[in-house]
Design a protein that fits this description.
alpha/beta; six-stranded parallel beta sheet; binds magnesium ion; TIM Barrel; 312 residues; single chain
Length: 312
Amino acid sequence: MTLPMTVPAPGLPARVRIHEVGPRDGLQNEKALVPVAIKAEFIRRLAEAGLTTIEATSFVHPQWVPQLADAEQLMPLIDDVAARLPVLVPNERGLDRALALGAREIAVFASATESFAKANLNRTVDGALEMFEPVVAKAKAKDAGAAVRGYLSMCFGDPWEGQVPISQTVSVSRRLLDMGCDEISLGDTIGVATPGHVRELLATLNEAGITNDRLAVHFHDTYGQALANTLAALQHGVTTVDASAGGLGGCPYAKSATGNLATEDLVWMLDGLGIETGVDIGRLTATSVWMARHLGRPSPSRTVRALSQKET
Ligand code: MG
């Protein structure tokens, strides 16, 4: 199969951890309801392709996310998968359900802006943080011992408010870490960020005492900037990047937001730069082609399209 020529560039990390969000962030935003056995096979195949962190599902109420209403059935089907399998939880009840099913890593989700906090959680920014505080505390307590990721939406722009001040994103990030989150995923939910903006936000976070090892980036390709922004983050020293196999998903509450960064597009760039990910791009592409067939539409990932057209 076609692979990029490996030509390293200076000032980049030797290794990147990809936080795969396809089964959760991807499928929750797909119209089609995917049977639980297919989801389990999807996660298994992603792990076999070399992904080490795969966000598996969500314990948000099924009324809000019917696509992931089968979390309870899914968990036992994937308990032998050799990867970190974080799950999204909205509240203490969701946390209890997740922990009872063996979840060892969880994610909570906050917003950098009031408008999105209201739209997504029907709360103020403060109200949402207050809601997650006991969840994070309980997850981190000795008997639970779960790792906690904090998603932060609208870090670079908001569909209602427009530009988002960097200081605002930094202050909510700080509060998520202070309440016990191990890592913050900085979300460009509507895909408007550009590389200078990324660098400026990361530099300001560092100045506020938040080190790169606590940060991940979550870019959307709405305006075609996801890979450029990722490269800027890598040059800045961030080594955890969120991506979605085959480019699955967007965000149901922000209409203009389409296109998670596709994992294959990311791996193509990282392979070309000689940055280790452990991912086999051929196996990953085959998995996304297989999933696209289940969803009844082609993958939006350009790398998946290019490689699968060449191979078939
Ligand atoms: Mg996303």
